[in-house]
Amino acid sequence: MTYKIVFRPEAELELAGAYGWYEERRRGLGEDQLDSVESVVESICEKRESYPVVHLGIRRAFLQRFPYGIFYLVEDEHVVVLAVFHASRDPRHWQIRK
């Protein structure tokens, strides 16, 4: 089954913010981070149930090279990305997004 990826607006804003932050540090680093996100999202689609549930049915997959987690729900044929969240931030910010 093919799953459709849906990014919630908050997750899109977090992703754009991280991209900008990394690009300011070094040109091309933001693109590397986006590539890492894309790779993890593809992995989620292939094995969406293999990532741990961390809060009320919400699962988390970490990026390989960057300190971010992708928090998502599986709903029917959709993978809903709730947050693209830096590992050091307070988790209460994404936990209310269900």
Helix content: 25-40%
Average pLDDT value?
Answer: 89
How would the global form be characterised? globular
Tally of separate helices: 3
Helix and strand element order: EHHEEEEH
Strand and helix map with partners:
Elements: E1 4-7, H1 9-25, H2 29-46, E2 53-55, E3 58-62, E4 68-75, E5 78-86, H3 92-95
Parallel strand pairs: 1-5
Antiparallel strand pairs: 2-3, 3-4, 4-5
Helix pairs in contact: 1-2
Task: Give an account of the 3D structure.
This protein is α+β, with helices and mostly antiparallel strands and 98 residues long. The protein has one domain (4-95): YaeB-like fold, CATH 3.30.2310. It contains three helices and five strands. The protein has helices at residues 9-25, 29-46, 92-95, and strands at residues 4-7, 53-55, 58-62, 68-75, 78-86. The chain has a five-stranded mixed β-sheet. α1 packs antiparallel against α2. It is globular and about 40 Å long. The mean pLDDT is 89.
Pick out its properties.
YaeB-like fold, 98 residues
Short description:
By secondary structure, this protein is an alpha+beta fold. The chain has a single domain (4-95), classed as RelE-like (YaeB-like fold, 2-Layer Sandwich). It is built from three helices and five strands.
